[in-house]
Structures are given as structure tokens and as C-alpha cells.
Design brief:
The protein has helices at 17-27, 43-53, 98-123, 131-135, 146-156, 158-161, 166-177, 192-198, 211-215, 221-237, 254-264, 298-311, and strands spanning 2-6, 31-34, 56-72, 80-89, 205-208, 242-247, 268-272. With 312 residues, it is an alpha/beta fold. It has a seven-stranded mixed sheet with strand order 1-2-3-4-5-6-7, sandwiched between helices. The structure holds adenosine monophosphate (AMP), zinc ion (ZN) and fe (iii) ion (FE) (2 copies).
Length: 312
């Protein structure tokens, strides 16, 4: 069993890389990819910990990009680019490499966004919420994300947002932090196609994260069969090798359908739990939210082969 989508406290997970590796050992993973948002800074610690357990580590990251081929269309509004999450695997670790330079620019953009967001929330009455407070919660200043900010809103200002429950957590995104919220501050929009072009020849390969969440609003079998083949085909034509068909929050039989559609397109069905530790307490490493996720080992081998081909 493998897990190719996990987060540590280098982004918005709660486990340190060493704790994550220990947990991976306990649940019996043979390969893990740590895919912290916008960073591979956790790699050194994670590699050492994984080596001690004999677990193979794939260097990865998850980045937020815009796919303009499939814009979001809403009645009465101009179409806008679709925000999608992309998993990149087998990243170069050399800070001078184009991909690492790109990740650095993403982290700077995130830091600027976070500062504006905090100032805006203070203006809305979240007066205790400061960057200093948030910085006590992360391994790296540029690892701060909206989940940390949401958590701080509950800890510091329950008089505004109430006690943290599943519903109130969702409401904080709907009312404040999400794309239609009062305090939404977008990050710079970067095109998916530009990023794929940036890594040509480096051995980095891409898989689209949680494709249903990115591209569809209704997850019925019929809408998936109708919409997904063209989306998958387009991503393949634009240089993607994988689709995260085995996503740990997607139940059967939808997951198997996504695996089939991915295979039909000649692509690799990648998979993972999207483990975030205490930030998503119901999501378990390896087996996901549904508890029955099982990403087969050969998927990691296929990704390794694709990476070798991409490095040629
Ligand atoms: P950021 O990296 O700061 O843009 O925050 C993105 C993260 O916020 C995602 O990975 C999710 O964990 C979380 N998030 C974004 N939108 C929502 C939402 N509507 N409901 C719950 N969590 C969300
Ligand atoms: Zn995350
Ligand atoms: Fe994501
Ligand atoms: Fe994720």
C-alpha cells in the first residue's frame, strides 16, 4: 500500500515529517509522497525518517494553479479561470532549478496574501489574530495557509465564529475565507500550462489532485462519465501523466470509475489520502476518509518510469 498525497507541518498538516514517517510505518506504507503546499523544505527530515523505516520517499508538492481551458461559467458573470490543485512528483531539490525558483515565488505570494488577509480580518473584528500568533503554529512562516487562519479564528474569536464543529468550519470558509467569502484574497493566478512547460526535461511529472473537486459540481456517475473523459484527455495532451483517481475522500464505486477513465486515456491513476493530521481529523493516512482506500504499489513504479522518461 502507498500514499502519494500527504501534508506535514511544513504546510497545513499537523504532523512533523518524522511523525508522519513513523505513522506510515505503522500503517504499512511501502512508498509515501509528502506533498506539502508550495514547498519541499520538509524533504531532508522526511528522507532520513523514511530511510530508517525502509519506506521509499517520492519528493512532491501540491500547487494551486488556474486551468483556463475549463473556465467556471456562472449565469450573469464573466467566465473565470478554474482554480485547480496539481501534484508534482520527483521535483529537483536544487534551489537554483526553475521549479524550486517557481516554488519560492509561490511562497512569497502566499506570505503577501496572508498579511493582507490578517489585516482584513482584524478590520472585521478579529483583533487578536496576528501574524505573530500564526507564526507560533507552523514550522515555516511561508507554510501558513487558510486552515491555520480558520483555526485561529475559532481559538481567538469564538464570539464571532462560534465553537469549532464540522459545520462551523465549513461556514468559516463560506462566510469568510472561501472564494465567495467576505475576506477572500486571491493569490496570483498562475497558469497550469506555464508550470508544465517550466519543468520540461527535469523528470518532474504531474498528476491532477482530487479531479472531481476541481472540475465538477455534482459527483454522480452520469456526470462523471459525461464530463471527465474530455478533461482527462485535455490534461494528457497538456503534459500530465497522472490523475488522482484513487482519492481518499472519494467513495466507491466512483473511485473505480475514475481509475477506469484514467486507464482508458492511457494515464496513471495516482492516489492518496490527503492526510492533514489534526486539520482533517477524519482522514487517515493510507486509507483516507472512506477508510477503504488502497493505492496499489505498482502505481508508484509507473510514476517512477514516467519520471525517467520525462528526464530523457
Ligand atoms: P491556502 O493554501 O491558504 O490557499 O488554503 C487552501 C486550503 O484551505 C485547502 O488545501 C483546504 O485545506 C482549505 N480550504 C479551502 N477552501 C475550503 C473550503 N471551502 N472548505 C474547507 N477547507 C477549505
Ligand atoms: Zn492542505
Ligand atoms: Fe488540494
Ligand atoms: Fe492536499
Amino acid at each position: 500500500m502507498i500514499d502519494l498525497h500527504t501534508h506535514s507541518l511544513f504546510s497545513d498538516g499537523s504532523a512533523s515529517p518524522a511523525e508522519l514517517a513513523a505513522l506510515a510505518h505503522r500503517v504499512g506504507l511501502s512508498t509515501i509522497a509528502l506533498t506539502d503546499h508550495d514547498t519541499t523544505d520538509s524533504h531532508e527530515e522526511m528522507a532520513a525518517a523514511c530511510a530508517s523505516y525502509g519506506i521509499d520517499l517520492i519528493p512532491g508538492t501540491e500547487i494551486s494553479l488556474v486551468d483556463s481551458e475549463f473556465p467556471i461559467e456562472r449565469p450573469g458573470q464573466a467566465p473565470r479561470g478554474r482554480g485547480v490543485h496539481v501534484l508534482a512528483y520527483f521535483l529537483p531539490l536544487d534551489p537554483a532549478s526553475p521549479m524550486q525558483q517557481f516554488l519560492t515565488s509561490l511562497r512569497r505570494d502566499r506570505a503577501t496574501r496572508n498579511e493582507s488577509l490578517v489585516t482584513m480580518l482584524q478590520g472585521f473584528g478579529f483583533e487578536q489574530l496576528t501574524m505573530e500568533y500564526l507564526l507560533t503554529k507552523v514550522a515555516h512562516p511561508d507554510g501558513i495557509g487558510r486552515p491555520h487562519i480558520a483555526e485561529a479564528m475559532f481559538t481567538l474569536h469564538p464570539e464571532i465564529v462560534g465553537e469549532r464543529t464540522e459545520d462551523s468550519w465549513r461556514a468559516v470558509f463560506t462566510d469568510w475565507l472561501g472564494t465567495d467569502g467576505k475576506a477572500y484574497i486571491p493569490k496570483t493566478e498562475l497558469s497550469l500550462d506555464d508550470v508544465v512547460a517550466k519543468v520540461a526535461g527535469s523528470g518532474t511529472v504531474f498528476s491532477v489532485a482530487h479531479p472531481l473537486l476541481n472540475y465538477l459540481t455534482d459527483y454522480t456517475t452520469s456526470s462523471i462519465e459525461r464530463e471527465m473523459p474530455a478533461i482527462i484527455r485535455s490534461l494528457k495532451d497538456r503534459g500530465f501523466v497522472g490523475v488522482e483517481a484513487y482519492y481518499g475522500s472519494t467513495p466507491e464505486p466512483i473511485r473505480s470509475l475514475m481509475v477506469k477513465l484514467t486507464r482508458d486515456a492511457g494515464m496513471i491513476p495516482t492516489g492518496g489520502s490527503d492526510f492533514h493530521g489534526a486539520f482533517k481529523p477524519d482522514v487517515a493516512l493510507g486509507v483516507g476518509l472512506t477508510g477503504d482506500l488502497h493505492v496499489p504499489d505498482h502505481v508508484a513504479d509507473e510514476l517512477r518510469e514516467a519520471s525517467s522518461r520525462a528526464a530523457a
